[in-house]
Amino acid sequence: MVGAGIIGLTSAFRLARAGHSVLLFDPHPAQGATWAAAGMLAPSAEVAPGEESNYALQKSAVIKWHELADELSLMTGRRLCIHETGTLLVGLDASDRRMTDQFVDVARDFGVDSLDVTRDRLPDLFSAISPRISSGTLLSGDGWIDPDEAVSILSQALDALGVRIITEKVLRITSDRTSVSATTCDNSYSGVAGILATGSAALPGGAVISGQHTVRPVHGVTLRVQGVDRSALPIVRAFVRGHNFYMVSRPGGYCVLGATQEERAEPGIQVGELARMLRDALDIVPELETATVLESRFGLRPASQDLRPFFEVLANDGWAWSSGHYRHGVTLAPLAAQWALDFVEAPA
Ligand SMILES: Cc1cc2nc3c(=O)[nH]c(=O)nc-3n(C[C@H](O)[C@H](O)[C@H](O)COP(=O)(O)OP(=O)(O)OC[C@H]3O[C@@H](n4cnc5c(N)ncnc54)[C@H](O)[C@@H]3O)c2cc1C
């Protein structure tokens, strides 16, 4: 398994649990897009026109997360908490509210359960949200996990299953009819099958793709602050002057604010993108004014041409490529893991 982001980690776990011996390569495990992710498992709030099949995939992935959490808990004694909060969708001004209405129309067409709510009737639901906002829509079926916690529990489970993590970059892959091999700066390793779960990164040398799938990096930032606790309430999603904004509130006042989305691959965080996000954040949740900034994280989402995830069997015998999970890789990870197992166990 090349790449130890959330896709590589869950895939390695699924394979090792099924009795396969797994080597996992990554020079910086879980420091890619997975590190930046807010951890929303939010099919309902992520609907988009023309992406109905993506919505169905994410819904089934959320069910798989519950099964995975049960398995991990049995193995490690640690339960990954899946917070089933739903989402509260709001708009800042009249034009943002038109966008929310259009969004809700699409969601309802896809079969999302939704409920229009007002501050008058349900004031607690609007706790910490700007008094300028008097109504919104509740979307059911959404929730969140803490990706750092998921990575930590998965890593413990992999350790217990004897999965070796080699903290080196794979430079080249090869294969013949009976084996695959991965070459790093220092060594060459061989096995019976190989999977590239390298997110938005360029593939190692030697990989022969069909051209049917490509990935491009889509830059994104989340900001982590301390000071507002809406953890017992739904995730906040908003349209603000036409931008998307969300706040995932964890117990104890830790909040993940997100997320910027730019078609660029440069590392780092620009002052302007952070400033725009903060302006949107303060307009929707004015209480953030006195919150403490903890850290900001950036990552490159792996986006395919049609924004759908893919699992491509490569022209190199025994190798496959699992990527394109874009804005939903945390959500989709248990499904990608199942595709990895199906590939490895497929009859020759
Ligand atoms: C700001 C932001 C917020 C997000 N929020 C959410 C969210 O709330 N919910 C959700 O479902 N998704 C979210 N996502 C999307 C999600 O994070 C990604 O889809 C997911 O992390 C992709 O996982 P991955 O394992 O494919 O990639 P990555 O996490 O990028 O991991 C790829 C790994 O491969 C390694 N690698 C690359 N090349 C090599 C090589 N040659 N040899 C060895 N290792 C290699 C890298 O070091 C890296 O660790 C968000 C993304 C961003 C950027």
Task: Give the key terms.
alpha+beta; FAD/NAD(P)-binding domain; 2 domains; eight-stranded mixed sheet; three-stranded antiparallel sheet; 7 helices; elongated; binds flavin-adenine dinucleotide
Topology record:
Blueprint: H1 6-17, E1 23-25, H2 33-36, E2 40-41, H3 52-76, E3 87-91, H4 94-110, E4 114-118, E5 135-139, E6 143-144, H5 147-160, E7 164-166, E8 172-175, E9 180-183, E10 188-191, E11 194-196, E12 216-226, E13 235-240, E14 243-250, E15 254-258, H6 271-284, E16 292-303, E17 310-313, E18 319-323, H7 329-345
Parallel strand pairs: 1-7, 3-13, 11-18
Antiparallel strand pairs: 2-6, 3-5, 4-5, 8-9, 9-10, 12-15, 12-16, 13-14, 14-15, 17-18
Helix pairs in contact: 1-5, 1-7, 3-7
The protein binds flavin-adenine dinucleotide.
Account of the 3D structure:
- With 348 residues, the chain is of the alpha+beta class.
- The chain folds into two domains: 1-82 and 144-215 and 304-348, 3-Layer(bba) Sandwich (FAD/NAD(P)-binding domain); 87-140 and 216-300, 2-Layer Sandwich (D-Amino Acid Oxidase, Chain A, domain 2).
- It is built from seven helices and 18 strands.
- Strands 4-5-3-13-14-15-12-16 form an eight-stranded mixed beta sheet, sandwiched between helices. Strands 8-9-10 form a three-stranded antiparallel beta sheet, with no helix packed on it.
- Strand 9 (180-183) and strand 10 (188-191) form a beta hairpin.
- The chain starts with 5 loop residues before the first helix and ends with a helix.
- Flavin-adenine dinucleotide binds at residues 2-8, 25-29, 31-34, 36-40, 169-170, 197-199, 201, 204, 220-222, 258-259, 299, 301-302, 323, 325-331.
